[in-house]
């Protein structure tokens, strides 16, 4: 008995020490350095660290270096004085000024508040390795990059590196409710333990901040965009303050979602009209109160007049009047308003695709400078593939930010491995043709072609209380890739993947090759077995889990039939000038090219065109056959992913292996389910046989239609 307890305690100890790869440590798992020349190069640095100043951020850096040193060398690092033998110098440009030549001074100065320089520095004949920023925050980013270069074995003490973020606000949006449920969350409950705050501080908050800071994420909105005004009460602000205080030295600013009707719900006012003096007073006082507790509070993220959320329209006011009212209250404190463009009204428009442009284009130039409009990557709603949102490039005077969804609401939730970065990259690299012919979405949102300073990339978080944070281990790769792209939206997805694989699975080339090919093929595979050739919004109602192409009834633009429009003639949504003309919201270069079904990239064909079943694609096959082939190839890719993964047994940690292998088996079943359900359903319109070469869809359409998932994760109880 005693032995058993000892054994259990020992395993608990091992787990707490991180010997088991349960995913808790994310990409910050500092493993022993096996490469001896790297170890010889790096060890002396950890044996002589000197900080040129003192501040809370340096304290955190010190802790991070301790963790890393224990992980890399199983020993304590040594912190020295300047007159002792110090090898690793850490500080800001001004702190190190007497040791820096003019060229270094200038180079570092150009990197702004958040950039860093790291490299060799000789002084009085002695060589040092220095990590320098203009601010402690820049230093922090430099240190994380330095540690990452050791983990990925790319560190070289003789070369210098400098970097700085291209986007100002790199932000996670949590859709977390105050009761700890998470809207569209698939990784357990909210990590914000509101009930036990402010008294109890969960150590997870620190690891969360470390993970974000290591990627350069510098802002978080804590609460659901379907907001609850309760978070603005004094007792909750006290809780928020605890988080803000913890995150501050990690360079992370806290935002909250503001419910537009808060003046009524908590201020006892009869109206929330943004032009009403009492309402303005309410917000000003509330904002002042928040800043008293949290002097660097970021501001508000607002969803208004969308999906039933209250907003200025109730009072005959427009989005600019609503946003500006909040912006005025925040401006004296340098706070900002992030106002979402994901809007659609109660009256069903002929095409929801057009709604944001219809509402926001006329308001261009009417928003105050401290307002950013946060636009989803596509015009519908985070579908497996969407063309870029026409608002990018249609609005010139207003600040525009990007909203991506990291949580996989429409992309397999937490049962599927789908690496989202290629999808984001596709959107970021899309040419908008406005304001100049070479303006891509990336160059609009980083301000380089839109000439804006207040820039933003937000990602809807996929984080929860699951031990591995994201439910599926590969969800971590999406968090990671989001952070990287927010820092530099021109990065390449396969390189980001390679880095993440290095950090998560180590250096074995076979492991790296296999996992990289799994990740790179995963998005196209999911698009193929869910919504190929521009199809969209085919998922099950409410929970959005699995296929539901037959969903109809109720609000039209919440159904599938509204989007696919299949009939005996063909399938697809005509958004050309013969249909809704949503295409007209894009620049003429795009509109004219895409209005021709023979010219539009086939991946967007059915997004913009209603096409006959016998329409010939570039392959010279009919549309019907191609739909079948795409669905089938998606399933085959999912199987290939699993085969690839299973070949890694024994080469990677057993716990990681089994976790992903089991989930890939589910992914195959779900891919088959999507293919079978969609093809059998669409066949009821096409009345055509399936192409010879595909595996014939099996099953009974009525059975698929009858499936119900009342307890699927991530949905509101009343849905
Ligand atoms: C949709 C989600 C819904 C969100 C909404 C939003 O299904 O839960 O509230 O987006 O972005 O994708 O506001």
Note down, in words, how this protein is organized.
There is one protein chain. The chain folds into three domains: 25-163, Chitobiase, domain 2; 169-492, Glycosidases (TIM Barrel), CATH 3.20.20; 527-573 and 610-706, Alpha-d-glucuronidase, C-terminal Domain. Helices cover 38% and strands 10% of the residues. The protein has helices at 2-17, 36-46, 56-73, 102-109, 136-151, 204-215, 234-247, 262-265, 277-293, 319-330, 355-360, 421-428, 441-445, 475-487, 493-505, 509-530, 561-564, 588-594, 605-608, 623-646, 654-686, 701-706; strands at residues 49-51, 88-92, 116-123, 126-133, 161-163, 169-173, 219-221, 253-257, 299-302, 336-340, 371-376, 399-405, 456-460, 570-571, 611-612. Strand 1, helix 3 (56-73) and strand 2 form a beta-alpha-beta unit. Helix 14 (475-487) crosses helix 15 (493-505), helix 15 crosses helix 16 and helix 20 packs antiparallel against helix 21. The radius of gyration is 26 Å and the shape is globular. The protein starts with a helix and ends in a 13-residue tail after the last helix. Mean pLDDT is 95; it is low at 4-18. Beta-D-glucopyranuronic acid (BDP) is lined by residues 183-184, 225-226, 303, 307, 342, 381-382, 409.
Provide the fold topology.
Layout: H1 2-17, H2 36-46, E1 49-51, H3 56-73, E2 88-92, H4 102-109, E3 116-123, E4 126-133, H5 136-151, E5 161-163, E6 169-173, H6 204-215, E7 219-221, H7 234-247, E8 253-257, H8 262-265, H9 277-293, E9 299-302, H10 319-330, E10 336-340, H11 355-360, E11 371-376, E12 399-405, H12 421-428, H13 441-445, E13 456-460, H14 475-487, H15 493-505, H16 509-530, H17 561-564, E14 570-571, H18 588-594, H19 605-608, E15 611-612, H20 623-646, H21 654-686, H22 701-706
Helix pairs in contact: 3-5, 9-10, 14-15, 15-16, 16-20, 20-21
The structure holds beta-D-glucopyranuronic acid (BDP).
């Amino acid at each position: 008995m005693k032995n058993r307890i000892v054994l259990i305690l020992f395993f608990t100890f091992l787990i707490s020490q991180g010997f088991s790869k349960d995913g808790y440590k994310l990409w910050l798992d500092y493993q022993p350095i096996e490469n001896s020349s790297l170890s010889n190069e790096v060890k002396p640095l950890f044996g002589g660290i000197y900080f040129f100043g003192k501040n809370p951020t340096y304290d955190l850096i010190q802790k991070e270096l301790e963790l890393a040193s224990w992980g890399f060398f199983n020993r304590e690092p040594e912190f020295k004085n300047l007159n002792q033998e110090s090898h690793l110098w850490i500080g800001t440009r001004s702190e190190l000024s007497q040791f820096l030549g003019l060229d270094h001074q200038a180079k570092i100065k150009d990197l702004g508040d958040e950039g860093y320089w790291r490299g060799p520095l000789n002084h009085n004949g002695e060589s040092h390795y220095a990590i320098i920023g203009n601010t402690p925050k820049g230093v922090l980013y430099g240190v994380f990059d330095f540690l990452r270069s050791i983990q990925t074995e790319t560190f070289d003490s003789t070369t210098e590196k400098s970097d700085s973020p291209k986007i100002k606000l790199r932000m996670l949006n949590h859709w977390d409710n105050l009761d700890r449920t998470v809207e569209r969350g698939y990784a357990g409950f909210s990590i914000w333990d509101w009930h036990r705050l402010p008294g109890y501080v969960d150590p997870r908050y620190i690891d969360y901040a470390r993970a974000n800071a290591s990627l350069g994420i510098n802002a978080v909105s804590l609460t659901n965009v379907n907001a609850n005004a309760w978070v603005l009460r004094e007792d909750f602000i006290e809780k928020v303050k605890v988080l803000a205080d913890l995150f501050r030295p990690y360079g992370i600013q806290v935002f909250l979602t503001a419910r537009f009707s808060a003046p009524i719900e908590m201020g006892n006012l009869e109206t929330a009209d943004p032009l009403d003096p009492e309402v303005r007073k309410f917000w000003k006082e509330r904002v002042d109160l928040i800043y008293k507790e949290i002097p660097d509070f970021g501001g508000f993220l607002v969803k208004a007049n969308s999906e039933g959320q209250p907003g200025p329209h109730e009072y005959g006011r427009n989005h600019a009047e609503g946003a500006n009212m909040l912006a005025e209250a925040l401006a004296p404190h340098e706070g900002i308003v992030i106002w979402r463009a994901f809007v659609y009204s109660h009256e069903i428009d002929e095409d929801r695709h057009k709604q944001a442009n219809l509402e926001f284009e006329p308001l261009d130039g009417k928003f105050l400078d401290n307002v950013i409009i946060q636009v989803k990557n596509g015009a519908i709603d985070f579908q497996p593939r969407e063309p870029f949102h026409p608002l990018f490039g249609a609005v010139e005077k207003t600040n525009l930010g990007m909203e991506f969804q990291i949580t996989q609401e429409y992309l397999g939730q937490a049962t599927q491995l789908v690496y989202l970065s290629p999808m984001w990259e596709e959107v970021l690299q899309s040419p908008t043709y406005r304001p100049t012919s070479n303006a891509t979405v990336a160059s609009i949102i980083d301000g380089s072609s839109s000439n804006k300073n207040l820039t933003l990339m937000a990602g809807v978080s996929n984080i929860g209380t699951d031990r591995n944070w994201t439910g599926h281990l590969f969800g971590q790769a999406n968090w990671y890739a989001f952070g990287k792209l927010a820092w530099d939206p021109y990065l390449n997805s396969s390189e980001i993947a390679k880095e993440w694989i290095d950090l998560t699975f180590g250096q074995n080339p076979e492991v790296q090759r296999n996992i990289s090919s799994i990740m790179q093929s995963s998005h196209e595979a999911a698009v193929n077995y869910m919504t190929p050739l521009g199809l969209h919004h085919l998922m099950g109602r409410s929970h959005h889990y699995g296929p539901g192409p037959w969903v109809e009834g109720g609000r039209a633009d919440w159904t599938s039939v509204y989007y696919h429009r299949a009939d005996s003639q063909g399938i697809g949504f005509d958004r050309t000038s013969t249909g809704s003309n949503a295409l007209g919201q894009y620049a003429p270069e795009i509109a004219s090219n895409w209005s021709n079904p023979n010219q539009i990239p086939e991946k967007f064909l059915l997004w913009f065109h209603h096409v006959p079943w016998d329409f010939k694609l570039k392959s010279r096959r009919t549309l019907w056959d191609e739909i079948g082939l795409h669905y089938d190839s998606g399933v085959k890719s999912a199987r290939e992913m699993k085969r690839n993964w299973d070949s890694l047994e024994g080469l990677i940690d057993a716990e990681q292996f089994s976790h992903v292998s089991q989930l890939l088996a589910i992914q195959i079943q779900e891919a088959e389910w999507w293919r079978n359900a969609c093809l059998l359903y669409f066949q009821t319109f096409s009345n055509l046989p399936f192409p010879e070469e595909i595996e014939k869809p099996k099953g009974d359409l009525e059975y698929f239609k009858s499936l119900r998932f009342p307890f699927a994760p991530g949905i509101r109880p009343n849905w």
